Amino acid sequence: MATGFELTTALGPDKLFFGRMVGRESLGEPYRYEFHLLGNATDVDFDDLVGTHLSMKMDFGASDPRYFSGVITRISHAGSVRSHDHYVAIVRPQFWLLKQSADCRIFQDETIADVIKTVLKENGVTLCDELKETYQPVAYCVQYRESNFAFVSRLMEQVGISYFFKHSDSGHEMVLVDGTGSHSAIDGEATIPFHRIGTSGQHLAHIWDFQPGRAATSGSFVTTDYDFEKPRADLETKALYEGAYDLEQGEVYDYPGKYTEAADGEAYTKVQLQARQVADSVGTGEGNVLGLAAGGLFTLEKFPRKADNIEYLLTETDLRIEGFDFEDPGDRRYTSDEDFERAFRIRFKAIPGDVTFRNLPRTPRPMMGGPQTAVVVGKSGEEIWTDKYGRIKVQFHWDRLGEKDENTTCWMRVAQAWAGSGWGSIFIPRIGQEVIVQFLEGDVDQPIVIGSLYNADQMPPYSLPDNQTQSGIKTRSTKAGTNETFNELRFEDKKDEEQIYLHAETDFHRVVENNDTLEVGLSKGEKSGEGNQTIDIYNDRTITLEKGNDSLTIKEGDRTTEIKKGDLTLTVSEGERTETIENNDALTIKSGNHSIDVDSGTSKITAARSIKLVVGGSSIEITSSGITLKAPKIEIKGDTKVDVSSAMTTVKASGIMTVKGSVVKIN
């Protein structure tokens, strides 16, 4: 039995009744229904309606009933119609309410489809998942200062997901689709005849105006990207239009494609070209078929151009439904089958059913207006958290969901002063430090770290402004380092106190592959007459010359070697030892002995004037004129024989002379 219109609102029955509705439904857009309602002012409180659900059942008996439902997002008083107050209610899907909320959050290692569904479900959107494609996880996906509606919309446009809405007596649901296999036939009879106005059969549900056509679109879509892990890889991909006419010149080239694998690039370019191809074969029409709704399929028949009697996908509908004759002073309402043709009109757009519908990208990506600061984070118990590329993870100040651990963000590359193949500079920001984060192309999904900042918790190594003339690099030992454990290179630029200070906390290893020159006491290349070198070593010192000479020249001054406790050993394994002293040479042994051993060869001491050996009151003096032995007692012993031979020999004793032998021969 036909009932016409059944309206349900939060006010309950018999408070408002349906007058008129105009609306638009589009694939990939929230619908908008404008309901004109009639009632009494005393029964309508706007606070009781805004944000509540409205539903309407339209049933004229000639076909299956059709339902319309949604959330009242605006209600207004539009005057009066005879004895009734006239209200206008704007009704939209639950999804539209996502425009009223915004967030900043990070998704990691999830597919774009899963991110979309997560946000929709969190916001109370009832979903029907008709997605057929396979989506690869993305490492990093950020929503930043954009509404939940804009975030979901741009993600869907990026990967080619669209949506429409189905209505029933229990409400409405959002249907996610991504290809021709995601759509099904409209409710009711899906094969619809074409009858021109004034021809037989027009009293039936039919289409009376249909205008198929073709339009020029882009011929190809090309993009590329860069992957730092495969810096020489060619990631350019291209999708070509396979239409019946030549659009080779209509190439769209865009950058970046936001992918690192060629297969992902091929999927992206295909989606973007398909979005541009939708306009190629859009047909428009008008009829009174109640089941015509965006997202549904129908088959046209009896159209004069037989080639156009095919299956179509409805991409947009404009509805006009009359439930009340605003011009009839008798308050006539449309309820019967005979009223249906007058009560319902629909204009629509459709594309062939074998054409994949994609929405053109129209939702702007949030552009980062400049760099941000963040805090370096990592695994609990660690002080440095990095990977083989020197990347780090951070916690943004706006991230209220991050746990300040190694899972907070994606790995972020860190800019260095120099970056070569196995050479360059490397400073890895440590956990707790504040860093500057920039975004490639202004893209929130592509952060890089470009520097570090001091703050009240992370103060400079030198007290400022007192030490404002000091510059340098000061590190911190890890793990569990303190202010007392560090390596440092510091420059002091205060006039007349200039200094370079180098500190190694444990070891200092210096490698010079050629010459090493140290000049002390030079000022602007000139000898200043000032400058000392002091070396303090608290343990061993070893100097090894693999090959070559060791030379020490003291042009003016003294050299002192003092060993307070220990030995001095000089070993010449091969070669000779030569010492040349231009003036005096003195050796003093205060305690102990002095020994010279010549294991092989001779020992020779040469003096121009004399050589004198003195032990107490005894001495041996050798001069160029003779040798003098002087001692309290002199003994000359020969185990076998003693010969004294000369041209003249004098033996003289001031006292007793004893010459003794078993045989004494004189001459």
Automatic annotation (TrEMBL):
<dbReference type="InterPro" id="IPR017847">
    <property type="entry name" value="T6SS_RhsGE_Vgr_subset"/>
</dbReference>
<feature type="domain" description="Gp5/Type VI secretion system Vgr C-terminal trimerisation">
    <location>
        <begin position="471"/>
        <end position="588"/>
    </location>
</feature>
<feature type="domain" description="Gp5/Type VI secretion system Vgr protein OB-fold">
    <location>
        <begin position="387"/>
        <end position="454"/>
    </location>
</feature>
<dbReference type="GO" id="GO:0005576">
    <property type="term" value="C:extracellular region"/>
</dbReference>
<dbReference type="InterPro" id="IPR006531">
    <property type="entry name" value="Gp5/Vgr_OB"/>
</dbReference>
<dbReference type="Pfam" id="PF04717">
    <property type="entry name" value="Phage_base_V"/>
</dbReference>
<dbReference type="InterPro" id="IPR037026">
    <property type="entry name" value="Vgr_OB-fold_dom_sf"/>
</dbReference>
<protein>
    <submittedName>
        <fullName>Phage-related baseplate assembly protein</fullName>
    </submittedName>
</protein>
<comment type="similarity">
    <text>Belongs to the VgrG protein family.</text>
</comment>
<dbReference type="InterPro" id="IPR006533">
    <property type="entry name" value="T6SS_Vgr_RhsGE"/>
</dbReference>
<dbReference type="Pfam" id="PF05954">
    <property type="entry name" value="Phage_GPD"/>
</dbReference>
<dbReference type="InterPro" id="IPR050708">
    <property type="entry name" value="T6SS_VgrG/RHS"/>
</dbReference>
<dbReference type="InterPro" id="IPR054030">
    <property type="entry name" value="Gp5_Vgr_C"/>
</dbReference>
<feature type="compositionally biased region" description="Polar residues">
    <location>
        <begin position="465"/>
        <end position="480"/>
    </location>
</feature>
<keyword id="KW-0964">Secreted</keyword>
<dbReference type="Pfam" id="PF22178">
    <property type="entry name" value="Gp5_trimer_C"/>
</dbReference>
<feature type="region of interest" description="Disordered">
    <location>
        <begin position="461"/>
        <end position="480"/>
    </location>
</feature>
